[in-house]
Design brief:
Helix content: 10-25%
Number of domains: 5
Mean pLDDT: 86
Structural class: alpha+beta
Number of strands: 43
CATH class of the largest domain: Mainly Beta
CATH architecture of the largest domain: Sandwich
Number of helices: 8
Distance between the termini: 182 Å
Low-confidence stretches: 1-29, 673-697
CATH topology of the largest domain: Immunoglobulin-like
């Protein structure tokens, strides 16, 4: 009996323990609050997988602070600063059954209750507040850009957050509440390359290939270099992937071309998926010969924002190789994608030539005209033609100047250690690079500046780069590597077929340029045919003046003067031809625009702007007193062929400044090759000789 009573009491104690335990818990943490004094909002960053799997009604959250967000949400979850939130109250005219947390028209700001989150969140004071409230993000004021400076907040849950104040859980009113809106982060992807369908000849394949189009994995890979003659149209493709659930306020593509390329206005086509966008409706377009800026409008942004899947935007356009291209120097066009959750100001750096002294000055200012104390910006000098960082070995030597490829400028000058990113010298508000090549273009790329700004590059005169910074928290723009286009040329020297002291350089020889098999002739369309014709007529006249001199005068002062006049006329013609030749084609010898090159007083002639490949010369007119060539000398245009090699003939007779040229020889003749009195004399002489021979034969017969 004693054991039965003991067993009963033990069982009763166990039952009472189970029944009382919930109440004991409640009594252990009773809520005596009568209002929710504060609401702290914490922005939680999750991976896309974690966000997708997260249950917003997950047990364990009761309005109080979550002790360990990694345990509650996901091991990779983290709280992030720099996100702007506002507390808003439901308008008085909205009925309880009409509340829509996503309808902005139903809500109004609570005065003074807004700001950026810190690593501990953002605390709102809510003492005495009653009714429906919401916490809403304002991404236009957020400063968060991710660890790489290029991310934007995309997918979300519990955004906006709906609250009923005071906040009540099972224990009563929560005095200091905590809420946890969640986001993922992502950034767009971009790449640029030649369009897949192209007939361009590759001279350097790079790592990405020339016929693959834009491929995101090739974003930072070296692109191909192709060769193309003046007038060739080069097709490009740019693809940009906009992440799902994006909320962009800015989406802008800014393309700048080096001087040897001309953007073909009207060629730009923009697609979202398979659908064409409409200019002036979906995007605004600024076009110049140097490139374009295409910016999505509000209508266009709606076609890429808030989508459940990533959206692909494709840009296609063409550029034309023009006569400003320089032999063996690549031409490139550099595109940047400027994006963010707020309006932006950033632009792509302009390719800029140095001044006549080989100098390039960077000037930087702020949109409000003021540098803050201690503010700095760091730039690196980039070869706009090759896309490579400029090195000291790339420059001409300048006395008392030490080249620095990366420089820091700022509000005030200070000493430092060149090349040390932690303690660089600061050169004041401007810096000048020296010893630059005058036939190349350069870019100053801003690699570091005060946080919260965008750089607007303004076009200026040669030798000057101007940068204006605007206060902004948009991510850094995306800048894929760019493919390049190059062409070349060849120099020649016309001589007799002698060597040493007997070698003579011959003026007045004229040549056609043909394709490799000699069947087609180089034809040049011209922007100003009259200017080229005038220069060619002048050159022809100077050649005729020299040819009309006697052999004795040609060897004397008159000949020297006449040759100098030919040289000057040839130089003027070359300049007029290069400036006005806007397209090479292959046609017939009879074409009125067929290219004819003429040797000057030193026997020199040349051709520029051809694609790398094999070609031939066909002599149109031989120098006076020399036999015309019946063959077609072959020549090759390739990298370095314009400068020539020392096994060829020195281009300038007196120095090596202009490199070397392929020697084209002619044989001197003693019998005139043309009709007229000269031919008649030889015909008469021939008849006389034949008559004399016949007479002798008859006389010999009679004697026999």
């Amino acid at each position: 009996m004693k054991h039965k009573i003991l067993s009963f009491l033990t069982a009763l104690a166990m039952v009472l323990g189970i029944v009382v335990q919930p109440f004991a818990k409640a009594n252990a943490a009773p809520s005596n609050a009568t209002t929710t004094n504060t609401v702290t909002v914490h922005k939680i960053l999750l991976t896309e997988t974690a966000l997708k799997n997260h249950d917003v009604n997950k047990k364990g959250y009761d309005g109080n602070k979550i002790p360990d967000i990694g345990t509650f949400f996901d091991a990779e979850a983290k709280e992030i600063p720099g996100v702007y939130f506002k507390l808003q109250k439901l308008k008085a005219n909205i009925q309880e059954d009409q509340v829509d947390v996503n309808n902005n028209d139903q809500w109004e700001d609570v005065n003074g209750q807004e700001g950026l989150t810190t690593e501990d969140g953002l605390k709102f004071t809510t003492t005495g507040f009653e009714g429906k409230y919401r916490i809403v993000e304002d991404l236009t004021k957020s400063t968060y850009k991710g660890e790489d400076g290029q991310s934007v907040l995309t997918g979300s849950k519990a955004v906006p957050t709906l609250l009923t104040l005071p906040l009540v859980n099972e224990d009563g009113i929560v005095a200091d509440a905590h809420v946890y809106p969640k986001n993922t982060e992502n950034k767009p992807e971009i790449d640029k390359n030649f369009a897949k369908e192209n007939d361009l000849k590759v001279v350097e394949d790079g790592e990405a290939g020339s016929k693959v189009g834009a491929v995101y994995e090739n974003y930072q890979k070296k692109k191909a270099t192709v060769t193309a003659e003046i007038g060739k149209e080069v097709p490009y493709e740019v693809k940009t992937k906009i992440p799902a659930n994006s909320k962009l306020k800015t989406a802008k593509w800014d393309d700048k071309m080096t001087s040897g390329l001309t953007f073909k206005k009207g060629s730009l086509l923009i697609k979202v998926g398979q659908d064409n966008l409409e200019k002036n409706t979906d995007y605004k377009l600024e076009e110049t010969d140097e490139g374009f800026v295409a910016s999505l409008t509000e209508t266009g942004l709606k076609k890429v924002n808030e989508k459940t899947e990533a959206v692909e935007v494709t840009l296609t356009y063409t550029a034309t190789v023009n006569s400003k291209s320089v032999v063996d120097i690549p031409e490139a066009n550099d595109i940047m994608f400027h994006y963010g959750n707020k309006p932006g100001f950033g632009t792509t750096p302009y390719p800029t030539k140095p001044n006549e002294n080989g100098e390039l000055t960077i000037n930087k200012s702020w949109d409000d005209g003021e540098w803050a104390e201690g503010e700095t910006a760091t730039f690196k000098l980039v070869d706009a033609n090759t896309g490579e960082d400029v090195k000291e070995s790339d420059l001409d030597k300048v006395d008392n100047y030490t080249f620095e490829g990366t420089v820091t400028i700022g509000s005030t000058s200070r000493d430092g250690i060149p090349g040390n990113p932690k303690n660089p010298p600061v050169y004041g508000k401007t810096y000048t690079w020296k010893g630059l090549k005058k036939d190349k273009q350069y870019k100053a790329v801003e690699i570091a500046t005060t946080s919260g700004s965008e750089s607007e590059f303004k076009k200026g005169a040669d030798g000057t780069i101007t940068v204006v910074n605007h206060r902004s928290d948009n991510p850094k723009p995306l800048n894929p590597t760019e493919p390049k286009v190059v062409n070349g040329g060849k120099k020649f020297v016309k001589t007799n077929n002698k060597s040493g002291d007997q070698q003579e350089r011959l003026a007045g020889a004229e040549f056609y340029i043909t394709n490799e098999d000699g069947s087609k002739y180089l034809v040049a369309a011209k922007t100003s045919p009259e200017a080229v014709k005038t220069a060619k007529d002048t050159l022809n006249q100077k050649v005729a003046d020299y040819n009309n001199l006697s052999a004795e005068d040609q060897k004397g002062d008159k000949g020297t003067t006449a040759k100098a006049a030919i040289d000057k006329a040839q130089e003027d013609y070359n300049k007029a031809f290069k400036e006005n030749a806007n397209a090479y084609t292959w046609g017939e010898k009879a074409d009125e625009n067929v290219v004819v090159v003429t040797s000057d007083g030193q026997g020199r002639f040349e051709i520029q702007g051809l694609a790398y490949g094999k070609y031939k010369l066909e002599e149109k007119t031989a120098p006076k007193g020399y036999a015309a060539r019946n063959d077609k000398p072959e020549f090759t245009v390739e990298k370095g062929s314009y400068a020539g090699v020392d096994s060829e003939l020195q281009y300038n007779k007196d120095n090596k400044d202009a490199g070397y040229g392929k020697q084209i020889e002619n044989k001197k003749v003693s019998i005139p090759q043309t009709g007229g009195i000269g031919s008649l004399i030889f015909v008469v002489a021939g008849i006389a000789i034949m008559g004399l021979a016949a007479y002798k034969i008859q006389a010999n017969k009679k004697e026999a």
